[in-house]
Design brief:
Layout lengths: L4 H9 L4 E10 L6 E10 L4 E11 L4 H17 L5 E2 L3 E5 L4 E5 L4 E2 L11 H15 L11 H18 L4 H18 L5 E3 L8 E4 L2 E4 L6 E3 L2 H19 L6 H14 L8 H19 L8 H13 L2
Parallel strand pairs: 4-10
Antiparallel strand pairs: 1-2, 2-3, 3-6, 5-6, 7-9, 8-11, 9-10
InterPro entries: Aminoglycoside_PTrfase (IPR002575), Kinase-like_dom_sf (IPR011009)
Protein name: Phosphotransferase
GO molecular function, one term: transferase activity
């Protein structure tokens, strides 16, 4: 597949002398397909042909333009100046195609290390430092996610799960109710930039470098939003692979320990709310949106939710 002329024009405007470009679809999502552009460019300084990979993500409406501005702000505020804790460089936005162009995230995703979490603690510690760095940044372009919105989402997931599994309805509704009640008592606090889907599949590791991508749920919010998502997703991946949450406990402990070293203590104070909140969202996705064949894991996951809430 050849690249559209509009893409080549934008790349040329950024100083890339593209001599050859091949395109393939990386992910054929209905609303947000992702494209892989393999470029052969002429380097005027060396007189040689060089290869470069650019990733394109197509958005509907004005979402791509807004996301490009968010990524550019993050790049300018610090992620472009530190090769060890970074994001893919935002290259350009192509309005005619609704296409956001960015650099390739090098390395393999952190999820590849989940089978042996105790051996890869250095990677998860770097991921924690990356997140603390994000939470300490200014981000004027981010939308605000209110705690009331988070609470309503948790309540909605709880209702759907309770209707789907009436035998567990009382437990699910109690868990969701505690999440909602806790969020109403957190009170007003300065919001920070949050990734929104901070989890191992969105984190690439290459040597000492951590690159985080997929900022589609980026918003100003409570920092525990990202912490809860990471922990709940890691627990989910551990249970899916090993049938237990225990395997990933050293991984999550190292992550939180490192994060606390680089962030204010109040950032982790709401973990007992946001881990169950993320669990409810994951359960809703697995059992309601794209239902798995065997839901027998539900009681163990509800146990985990209740244990986290009891820590509050």
């Amino acid at each position: 597949m050849d690249a559209p002329h509009a893409v080549l024009e934008v790349l040329a405007a950024r100083g890339l002398d593209v001599r050859k470009c091949r395109v393939r679809v990386m992910r054929s999502y209905r609303y947000r397909p992702i494209f892989h552009y393999s470029l052969t460019c002429f380097d005027e300084a060396t007189g040689a042909l060089v290869r470069k990979v650019v990733i394109g993500k197509r958005y509907a409406g004005e979402g791509g333009a807004a996301m490009f501005e968010v990524l550019r702000e993050l790049w300018q505020n610090g992620f472009g100046g530190d090769p060890r804790l970074t994001i893919p460089e935002p290259i350009a936005y192509v309005p005619a195609l609704g296409l956001l162009l960015q650099d390739l995230a090098r390395g393999k995703d952190l999820h590849h290390h989940i089978d042996h979490p105790a051996r890869s603690l250095r990677h998860v510690r770097r991921a924690a430092r990356w997140l603390a760095k994000l939470h300490g940044m200014p981000a004027s372009r981010a939308p605000l996610l209110r705690l009331s919105d988070e609470a309503e989402s948790a309540a909605r997931h709880g209702r759907a799960l309770g209707e789907l599994f009436p035998a567990f309805a009382r437990r699910v509704e109690a868990i969701a109710g505690r999440v909602v009640a806790s969020m109403t008592t957190l009170g007003a606090r300065p919001s920070v930039p949050t990734h929104g889907d901070f989890q191992p599949k969105n984190i690439h590791v290459s040597g000492d470098r951590i690159t985080v991508f997929d900022f589609d749920r980026f918003a100003l919010g409570h920092p525990a939003r990202d912490l809860g998502q990471f922990i709940a997703q890691c627990l989910t991946m551990s249970y899916t692979r090993a049938g237990t949450f225990r395997e990933v406990e050293p991984w999550n402990a190292a992550f939180l320990e490192e994060y606390r070293r680089h962030a204010p203590p109040e950032a982790t104070s709401a973990l007992s709310t946001f881990v169950p909140r993320s669990f409810l969202e994951i359960l809703h996705h697995k059992l309601f949106v794209f239902p798995v064949a065997d839901p027998s894991f539900l009681p163990a996951w509800l146990d985990a939710c209740e244990q986290w809430e009891d820590l509050g």
